[in-house]
Input
Amino acid sequence: MKRLRYTTVTATLCAALAVALVAGLALGSVRIPTADVLEILTGRAEPSPFRTIVLDVRLPRVLLGATVGAGLAVIGTVLQALVRNPLADPFLLGVSSGASVGAVCAIVLGGVFGLGASLSTTVTIPAASFAGALLSLILVYALARSGGGFATGRLILAGVAVSYILTALTSLILVTADSADHLKEVLYWTLGGLGSARWDMLALPCATLVAGTALLMSMARPLDLLLAGEEGATVLGLDAARFRVGVFVLASLLTGVLVAYSGAIGFVGLMVPHAARMLVGAAHRALLPVVALMGAVFLVVADLAARTVAAPQDIPVGVLTALTGGPFFLWLLRRRNEGVPA
Output
């Protein structure tokens, strides 16, 4: 019965993702009939402006949205297990902010040193984004440790503080940027958006997501052990400290790559794991695929809303996820304060 339920959940999410992707291709400032979209995707449509819009503009965007949404949800799930805190999230822990600082530094310095746009997109920005994410996560983790132990209660406070500092640093870079082009690009990273998606931007985030999720799936049992507490995990044979460091590095790599292409999109990794646990429980081998599908659906739908709610104006999707994630965070915090399991 449980297996049937899991199969039903995953099948439903796959269908929802397919519907969301088609809707993302059909809807926008220019509405394209669904039948035309399907003909274009199957290669039966004649060359037309609709074909250009679907294949060259919207399809890379919805695919990047699905990739980033899945990745952020997976990262949030893993971070919540590592620190045993349901409020953990790449955005709240300052990881996304660190990745953004790295990315905007690469943008500005790339312009100063005359690096090509292709090199910056494929190498410089992802590498700098990863470095910023890793450094910020190390800093937050160090601040949350107390007396040789790990204080999960201090984690969110440390993450918020580091995030504020990094946001201020990003604002400083924004103010001191010499070029108007740099100003526009830096503003994009601070808000988070998918509007610049292109086909040549998909390979690295997709490959990183697939490889990273597969690796995390192989670590499902250690992640489950950490949920029982560090002492219990050690008794059961897990070197919790070493394992946590390794997964932190992997989470930083995933976050850095994703933020390099989407900017800092917050709260996806906070909200989606909680919804997924309600459906399939907390065992990570079953949870991670569901979380990835649900995160992909969520961000594709959120981006669709971002570009249609005020069409033809394109609202950064990070604004909408913050508007929904902020109240969810406050609700979750209130439940924890009342002693209700999150």
